[in-house]
Structures are given as C-alpha cells and as structure tokens.
Amino acid sequence: MNIVVCIKQVPDTAGGVKFNPDGTLDRASMLAIMNPDDKAGLEAALRIKDATGAKVTVLTMGLPKADVMLREAMAMGADEAILVTDRVLGGADTWATSSTVAAAVKKLDYDLIITGRQAIDGDTAQVGPQIAEHLGLPVISYAEDIKVEGDSVVVKRQYEDRYHMVKAKMPCLITALSELNEPRYMTPGGIFDAYDEKEVTVWGRADLTDLDDANIGLAGSPTKIAKASDKVAKGAGEKVNLDPTESVNYLMEKFREKHII
Amino acid sequence: MDFTLDQKHEMARGLFRDFAETEVKPLAQETDETEVFPQVTVDKMGRFGFMGIPVPKEYGGQGCDPLTYVMCVEELSKVCATTGVIVSAHTSLCIDPILTYGTEEQKQKYVRALATGEKLGAFALTEPGAGTDAQGAQTKAVLDGDEWVLNGSKCFITNGKVADVYIVIAITSVTEDKRGRKKKNFSAFIVEKGAPGFSFGTKEKKMGIRGSSTYELIFEDCRIPKDAILGPEGKGFPIAMHTLDGGRIGIAAQALGIAEGALDRAVAYTKERKQFGRSIAAQQNTQFVLADLAAKVEAAQLLVYKAAKAKETQKVYSVEAAKAKLFAAETAMEVTTKVVQLFGGYGYIREYDVERMMRDAKITEIYEGTSEVQRMVISGALLK
Fold first, then answer.
1. Which of A56, A175, B39, B339 is surrounded by the most beta carbons within 10 Å?
2. Interface pTM (ipTM) of the complex?
C-alpha cells in the first residue's frame, strides 16, 4: 500500500503574525513549522504504516527551505520525500497549488492520499478537496479517525454537532483534522537517517509534464487578495460589580442575548 | 574550526527541547517534591529512542554520536536534572561499558533491551568506605564452579532500585608485589535484578535530584553465572575508570543544562520583576551578573561539546572529560547560586524552579568524581 501525504511549511502563528508592507505574510521573520493538520495526517499515515507496512511518501510544494520540514517528516518515519519547488510556481493560490500538487501526485503510485484539512496561514481548506477533484478521486474531509479495511478506508468525518462514518474504496483522498491524533516525536536515529541516509527528491516545473502553464504560479491564480490582517485586538470589555447571584444572572442573560446558550 | 551545529544536530536539539518542555518540565517540581522516580517519562524516552542515543543500530540503538547524546542530557537537565541523570547513568555507565568490553553475546543480550528502554541500567563502584579512593572497595567475587559468588555492598547507586541491569565492580583476587605490598585486583560483572542474594538497602534522602532512585545494593552470597564477568578478569579497575571518563561527559552535560536553565529563568524574571520603578534587568548589577554567567555558560558548553567530540574520535579522553565536568559543575553551582540571589526572596521559595536547580547543581560537583578528582586528573596529565 502506498500513501502520499501532502504537507505544507507554514509560519508558526503561535508567536503572533507579522506582515510585509504590501499586506503579504512576512514569512522570513516567523519560525516555520509543519502545518498542524498536515502533521496529524502524517501521523495517521505512519500509524497505517506501523500496522500494515505501507510505504509513506511526503510531498510538498514550497521554497527550498521546506527541505527541513521534509527531513522532519522522514525523521518521524516517512519513507520518501518530494519537494516541488520552482520560481514559476511561486505566488500560487489554492487552484494553482492544487493543480501543481495533483500533477506531482500523478507521477507517484498511490492508494491513499492524505492532506491536512487546512493550513494555519491561509485557512482555506480548499487544496485537499481540489487535489481530489483534479485526480478524479472521492474525498472524505474532516477525518477524526481513519481505519483501513481491505481495499477501503472507513473514516469518522467530524462536524461541529455530529459525525458521519464514511466508507470509501481506495484510491481516495482524506483531509485530516489536527484532533485526529497526537503526532509522534521524531527519533534521534530518525533524524540522523533523514540527513545521512535519505534524500529529498526535488522536482521543478519541467518535471511536471501533466500540468498546464495557465494553471501555475501567480499568473495561474484566479484569487486576488484585497487585504490581509491579523486578528483584530479586542476592546477593553465590560466590567460589572455585582454580588455572585446577580453576576450569574447577568452573565446568563448576556449568553442568551448572544445565543451562546 | 567551526563552532556552528549542522542541521542534523540542530534538529536533534529541537527534538530534545520540545520533549523536555512538553513532557518533562510539567513534572519537574512534583518529581522533586514527592521524590518519586519519573517512570512515565522514562517509558516515553524509551519509546522515542532517548535511552540508546549513541548506541549502534545493530544493537537496537539510534546510531547517533556522543554529541547528540550530550545535547539530550543537556536539554533534559535544563528543566529537570533528575531526568538528565537517569539517562546519563543508564547510557554512559551501563550501556557504554557493555558495548566497549562486552562479548558479542553480552551485547546482544543486554544492550538491545537497554537501548530501547525496555530495561534500565546502573553502575556500582562506590562503597561506604570507598568513594574517591575507589581502590578501598571491599566487595568480593569468588568463582565457585560455574558461578561467581558476590559479597559486599555498594552505596549511592543512581537508578538503584529501578534498574534491571547493574555493572558491579568487585575484588576477584589479591596479589603481592615484589615488596610484599598487597594489591587488590578488581573485575567488572553484569548483575541482573533478581539474582539470588542481591537485595536493596535504604533509599537515600537527598538534597537534590530527588526523583532519582539512589539506593544501597547488598550482595549476600549473590550467585551469578560465570560468563557474567565483563571484560578480562582483573581488569575491573581500568574498566571502571574508563567508564567514568564517559560518565563525566554525561554529568558535565547535566551540569551545563542546569546552568543554562537557571540563566534562562533569570533573564525572563529580571525583565519582569520591578523594583524602584523599573525592571531589575535595567539595573547595572543585574546586567553585569548576567553577562558573567552567560560567558561562563558558553565556555562550559564549548568544553562539554569538545569532550563529546573527543569521545567520538579519541581512544583516551580522560582529561577532556575531567575539564568539562570540573568547569560545567562549578559553573552550574555558581550560576544557580547567583540566580537565586537575583530572584531574591522568591528564589528561596520552592514554587520557583531556581531553588530546586541550586540544590540539584551541588551533586554535579560530587558524583562521578568530585571536582577535586577532576583536578587530580587534569594536573596529573599536565605534570607528568
């Protein structure tokens, strides 16, 4: 069984978000991490590998510095890593990204593709399902549990108030939630192997034959960003001084007003 | 000469730091307070390969270099010195001598289980009457048919009661030199927990590293197989000394970690703590103290990393190990003492980590060779 996990290197938003003067993310000044949903997807793939001996390939489109993230994935247990990088692919929106990633996936043997639900920098949740669309595969999003049964997968698809149990025949694509699991740590020996024994395969535009130039990079991106901003700082709020019973009544009334309860 | 770490080592450091912050730090105060061995953490470290970092893969280890192992002990000790010494004693004092002196059969039998964390290791040389003067040891081993029979006791043994495999140094013969002076000949043995006649004495109540299991080991007609001897008969003393050379690098890393951890906390605290209307970090006294400590911590790190590289590339590294341990241990004591002073009254309160760090630092000047022993090793090489 071959599993391809699509992962993305994202700025760590835990320490706040910084922007360039033109409104785009200042990625250089922020620490880069593996997107949390993608990491959960990788862990899910590695658990299938532990149970069945599946081969796990990680794939990313990004800057050359994403090499570190791919080595991290191999240090966790991924067998192979592919970096799709080329200047002409830069500035891609979800459409151009999914077109490019799908063209890269087409070059691989796969039974199952796992992506994160969404990246913490763009928050679109579009790339996973779009890759499936390009490849003509069924997609199961918001996976909170994945089980392999023969040539099928059974996935618990999580909603806010309910879940679906969905069974699909492979090949198919699953998008993972970070709640899916607790990703494992790398091992020290895994890190040494990732640098000393393994290679990151690098593909440029020329390696992706099944891809139309109209669908790549900034020029092939229909999305236009008007403005980007960080979370708006909250106001001072409201302070009330009441005794405990009155405070509870006051709070309950506010909750009702805002339809929280 | 290049003082920068490559990406591989940077990633390993990131892993150890992440693990220490997430898994170890939240338990450090409780481990100290309750004096309970952190078994949950040790199990996790076994699962993620931390218990066999410098061990070749063919014996179940991670196949990394001594530097990576040293960084692991360093990062763990930044948040919990107890956890640091558990890994250090297990790796340097138990696995390392079996790898260096063991037969292929012994390596297969013990190292795999130790390196994967399935079993825990310990080392027993010190006796009530034989600390720095290790030659004064009294524990004896006599061959009786197909078995060695051990009698005596060992004290202050790290991982004492929780270990499964013990390296025990015992006298196997006494010979006379030309002048008629008696000389004890020691041998090293691998003793498994549960061997008949092997029991535990009292648990030591310590000033620091209080979660570490420190026990007395008692051997009363303890019978172990003939092939449990490690290395050649009569070579136990050089085996013990060489093992301690490696162990000292581990303890130096522990001391380095304690010093770094204390300094990190001092930097954060002095920026927050306000007196006379401004942060105490804005006072020149604080700035000068922090500057001195930072310089010493970095010097200690360079010595420790140099010793780790020496272990990788040299057959003998006693002097490098002694210098690293001497300087790192005394730096840990100085840094923690001065950091407690910077914290003032809060530094004396158990709620703040630095009080524990100061107590933990002291042992690094004592075990695996006191600072005085390190000075003897260094000056001995200097003046020979």
1. B339
2. 0.94
